Amino acid sequence: MARILIIDDHDSMREGLELLLRRRGHRTAAADGGARGLELLEELGADLVITDLKMARMDGIEVLQRVRERFPTTEVLVITAYGTIEKAVEAMKLGAADFLTKPFSSEEFAVKVERLLQQREERERLRLENRTLRVENTYLREETAAEPVVPRYSEIVGESSAMQEVFRWIDRVARSDSTVMIYGESGTGKELVARAIHAGSPRAGGPFVRVNCGALSESLLDSELFGHEKGAFTGAERKRRGRFELANEGTLFLDEIATVAQPTQVRLLRVLQERELERVGGEATIPVNVRIIAATNQPADELVSGNGFREDLFYRLHVVPITLPPLRQRRDDIPILVRHFIEKLRERTCSPVRSVTDGALDRLAEYSWPGNVRELENVVERALVLAEKEELDADDLPPMGEANGGTLRPEPVLTSDGLDLNEVVEGMEERLLRQALDQAGGVKAEAARLLGLKPSALYYKLEKYGIEA
Ligand SMILES: Nc1ncnc2c1ncn2[C@@H]1O[C@H](COP(=O)(O)OP(=O)(O)OP(=O)(O)O)[C@@H](O)[C@H]1O
Ligand SMILES: [Mg+2]
Description:
single chain, alpha/beta, Helicase, Ruva Protein, domain 3, 5-stranded parallel β-sheet, 46% helix, binds adenosine-5'-triphosphate
């Protein structure tokens, strides 16, 4: 959800765009001229301004210049009429983030807006990280003690000993140029850690380039990573530099590395070993100077044990492994994370919430968090939207686990009070039996198959728990 200001002197255009954006969940304001638009901007602020270039009084170029001067973090998207491309080019030179030529479809419009908002968020994040880093660096220089310095990357929070260990690794590895492999379930903060390593490294001034290896088909991934020459394949109308080249002097983050197909693995291995590459369809050898950070949500042993991941590549990547533990194994991080997210999301959600009750924290601590920190962040965000008081209470929390088909049942934790193992195991067994029967539509043979049991074993267990199909 972003705050977007639309400036256009055509009523129907303005209203149409507003409607589209609102439907997508954004907050909008609108003005029929540049002067009024700038007033609104002063008053309300905005993440994005969308302005027509040709308007009766103050034209879009002037609006753009004023916004750039006074609101450096606000993006501007300009709308131009067909056949006035020079105007659009001028606008881009003056700092517009992008332009759109009339007529355009609502689809085109929506895609462009979302992409701009995403880029903006990315940039803001990097800016924050770099700022923290600058503070960090002065701090490091003044520090004379030999004890390890725990970096306070303000965006990554955690008090648990597991996270303290992760911080120490980030600190250590950031100073080197070693390849890093980050392991962790989905939503545990792998990307955050990758960015922190980059931001803390001597390469911080260079680019941080992320490639989501899982999102691209094999051939697309090849040309995405290594680039291609003109005519390398159908559709390659121009020469294109790959992400390796774009990341030169910086860091390349290979996300979801486990999904990379074998032929691409071979090419990757070669770049890691030789520090040079050829573009797809090209002959020239291009040297690259990049630091590699890779991430996967598979544990290291699963990655190599017969899952099609080359062992030689594995050892090239697994130079410094960092493992992010799932949230359920570091529940003592939950309170500080919740407070962090309240701070982070309060404004954006226009929430009155300032603090959180112990009752709410207790309830959050009971859940198993299959989606890890990301899921916690979503839950807090939804709670902030719903809450009406300054204190976030257990009643304000949305039902958890809906999206994951999970339940509210707490993941059993072993505390100093001990637990009854049989009871815990039987509870889980009964639940899974019921679930399997349910999924199998009551067909016992199918339920047995789902659970990897012989039908006779299933019958026995159903009887034991008194479950009727
Ligand atoms: N320790 C943390 N402190 C603050 N925010 C965190 C922390 N860990 C994760 N987050 C937040 O949780 C969300 C998910 O983090 P991130 O994208 O880094 O996870 P991931 O491990 O890359 O997940 P996936 O495997 O699904 O891509 C982000 O919004 C991130 O800001
Ligand atoms: Mg990720």
